[in-house]
Design a protein that fits this description.
The protein is of the alpha/beta class. It folds into 2 domains: 230 residues, FAD/NAD(P)-binding domain (3-Layer(bba) Sandwich), CATH 3.50.50.60; 151 residues, FAD/NAD(P)-binding domain. The protein has 15 helices and 20 strands. The strands form 5 sheets. Strands 1, 2, 3, 4, 5, 6, 17 and 18 form an 8-stranded mixed sheet that branches. The radius of gyration is 23 Å and the shape is globular. This is NAD(P)/FAD-dependent oxidoreductase. Its EC number is 1.14.13.-. Pfam families: Pyr_redox_3.
């Protein structure tokens, strides 16, 4: 199908950021491969009712592409428009091949190129940037009898807008971030809503605000926009103190969450069911002003662990305590394979090394981005690059400093390949998991999607985002093999 200097897999914010940075570097010989039939990633795919970002919009945007946001926490439609704004502003539409699901990739030792096998044919590239993102592979638990259910089912990641859920008996399986947005959006319109939660989540107030005309005018002025962006950044960065360095700070935040729970959930039985037994931050914290009131509605039932799903049959769900719940629709709000499934397709590196084997214990990567024996391969939002307290786009832009420096160094020296040394990756990974021991994600008393099957916390970076930015700011020649 073609040969390029760089192939980018995925067209969400990670892929767009990589593409724009390549253009700024003067590199135009690249192509984005997108498996879907549209360009844009998460905020074009996730269209479920209530979908919105949980990081303030002025910060949840690319530093080189500011936007006239209408509110502090943008909803899905506006995020979709922002995605299209970036695509059009930087003329990326002609740089993408849609419907190109990657089936496998392999390094050619002789030509020192990546061979990328897709549904549309074979591509070759000197450099390969995986930007598929950690939240792209939906997970549906293998409940007994799942295939027997005759009603409607879908995952929040694939919301079926042709199905009318109004006045229907609906179950939402899961109680995380997506469920917390869907529940208030549909609760008033369904006949009855059954919420199945494995464990409750901590909830804090969502400090949302619609910008009026004058505020929007002010924020279009570059200095004021920059000031707001950085003030939000430092306010959110302070959360790491609680997540890692101060248990008293964690408990102070937890008391805020408990006050919200007590204020909005008057029923003591329901309140107990919604009270987590782990430290706040161990699982993703939900920001919502409407979740608890929705769960208190007369037509909403919250099923805890003891009333969890035992099996499904033709007409509904059988719970562990013997109830049979008749249903018309089951919505799987059960998240994504964000740790062990960071890359969903088979990858074969130098000398036939398989990524599956390299990650047999747990996924790992130098700066969460590159691996020994996989030359010229870069993973955007790879292992331990997640950030629980601020914008993921800040991390993505930090990764680009390292990735572009690698490519720039090879081009300047007229060389073909670069890979991180095994010892450098080992030192970095040991540091990450040593630092992780102090965090609430590791020692907060929960099991979350942040952890891989090994028990290692794979999704999160154990520190301040500015620390990660400093680590990626300069390419360390001694940590790499160039040829």
């Amino acid at each position: 199908m073609g040969s390029y200097q760089v192939l980018i897999i995925g067209s969400g914010f990670g892929g767009q950021c990589a593409a724009v940075n390549l253009l700024k570097e003067g590199i135009e010989d690249f192509l984005l491969l997108e498996r879907r039939d549209f360009f844009g990633g998460t905020w074009c795919q996730n269209t479920y009712p209530g979908a919105a970002v949980d990081v303030p919009s002025p910060l949840y945007s690319l530093s080189f592409a500011s936007y006239d946001w209408s509110r502090m926490f943008a909803e899905q439609e506006e995020l979709h428009r922002y995605t299209q704004h970036v695509i059009e502003r930087f003329k990326l539409r002609d740089k993408v091949q849609l419907g190109s699901n990657v089936e496998r990739v392999e390094w050619d030792d002789q030509t020192r190129q990546w061979l990328v096998h897709t549904a549309k044919g074979l591509y070759r590239a000197q450099f390969l940037i995986n930007a598929t993102g950690p939240l792209s592979q939906p997970v549906i638990p293998p409940f007994e009898g799942r295939e027997r259910f005759k009603g409607k089912t879908f995952h929040t990641n694939h919301w079926d807008h042709a199905y009318d859920y109004r006045h229907k008996r609906v179950a939402i399986v899961g109680s995380g971030a997506s469920a917390a947005q869907v529940i208030p959006a549909i609760a008033a319109e369904v006949e009855h809503l059954h919420v199945f939660q494995r464990t409750p989540h901590w909830v804090l107030r969502r400090r949302d605000h619609t910008f009026n005309r004058f505020e929007r005018w002010l924020l279009r002025q570059a200095p004021l926009h920059t000031l707001l962006r950085w003030s939000i950044y430092w306010q959110f960065e302070a959360r790491v103190i609680a997540f890692k360095y101060s248990r008293s700070a964690v408990r102070m935040v937890q008391r805020q969450a408990l006050r919200l729970l007590e204020c909005q959930v008057p029923d003591p039985t329901l309140r107990r069911r919604l009270t987590p037994d782990y430290l706040i931050g161990c699982k993703r914290v939900i920001l919502s002003n409407t979740l608890y009131p929705a769960l208190c509605r007369a037509n909403v039932s919250v099923h805890g662990q003891e009333q969890g799903i035992a099996a499904l049959d033709e007409t509904g769900i059988i719970t562990r305590d013997g109830q049979h719940i008749e249903l018309d629709l089951i919505v799987w709000s059960t998240g994504f394979d964000a740790t062990d499934g960071v890359i969903s397709y088979p990858v074969t590196g130098k000398n036939g090394t398989r990524l599956r084997d390299a990650w047999a214990q747990y996924p790992r990567a130098y700066l969460g981005t590159s691996l020994p024996d996989f030359p010229n391969l870069f993973i955007v939002t790879g292992p331990n690059t997640g950030i629980g307290h601020t914008s993921a786009l800040f991390i993505i832009e930090s990764q680009m400093n390292y990735i572009l420096d690698c490519i720039r160094t090879l081009n300047r020296r007229n060389l073909r390949s670069i890979e991180v040394q095994s010892a450098a990756e080992q030192r970095y990974t040991e540091m990450i998991h040593r630092e992780m021991q102090r965090t609430v994600w590791k020692s907060g008393g929960c099991h979350s999607w942040y952890q891989s099957k090994s028990g290692h916390v794979i999704a999160m970076f154990p520190g301040f985002s500015f620390t990660y930015h400093r680590l990626t700011r300069r390419f360390r020649l001694d940590d790499h093999i160039l040829s």
